[in-house]
Hints:
The chain is built from one helix and 23 strands. It has one helix spanning about 220-235, and strands at about 1-10, 15-20, 40-45, 55, 60, 75, 80, 95, 100, 105-110, 115, 120, 125-130, 135, 140, 145-150, 155-160, 165-170, 175-180, 185-190, 195-200, 205-210, 215-220. The relative contact order is 0.10. Residues about 1-10 and about 15-20 have low confidence and may be disordered.
Amino acid sequence: MLTAVSFIDDDSRHRTSTVVRVPNPTAPRPPKIPNRRPPARTDSDGASLLDGDSYTGERYDRVDLSDRDLRHSTFSECSFAGTVLTGADLTGAHLVESELTEVEAAHLTAPRSLWRHTAIRRSRLGAVVAYEGSLDGLVVADTEISFLNTRSGTWKDVLLQRCVIDELDLVGAKLTRVRFEDCQVRSLELTGARCTDVDLRTTQLREISGLAGLGGCTISPDQLTDLSGALAAHLGISVAPA
């Protein structure tokens, strides 16, 4: 797109024009979320769950897994419905093509975990420690999270819908094709983050740290207005009446 910009030469008082080349705005690429049919599953009470084991096609309905050691476990095509995970240790665990619905966890430990083609819906999570984790094809919908630490993690093809997150820590994280739809993020930390095709346009952002991490994100004109003061301060721009 070409835009004509006029300038006035103070000495000659003559108006001159030049053409500035402005790139056309393009929408960010949306996340690629696979469509899957729920597989047949077998009910389980979770009593036999052990760290490091693999489980396929199991349903944990209203099961209390509080404080369970599930480190390096693998859950494939499993379902967690109304499950309590407070204090569970999912360090290095893999959740693949699984569903978590109405899950509760006051605090959850899951560093270096993998969440692939999995969905979390209508859940309430407190402090979630998931640094250096991998989120691939993950959908999180209608969920409240008090604190989410995914420092140095990898987000790829992630969709968040109608979520409320009090604190989201993305320090050093890499995000590709991530969309926040109608979410609220009260505090967003982006220091050292690397973003590509991250869509924040319909999300309420109250406080952002590490503004340089917004590179590669798409925001709305209203969001840009709200962030103008913080961006000016970040760039060292002084704003004063003429």
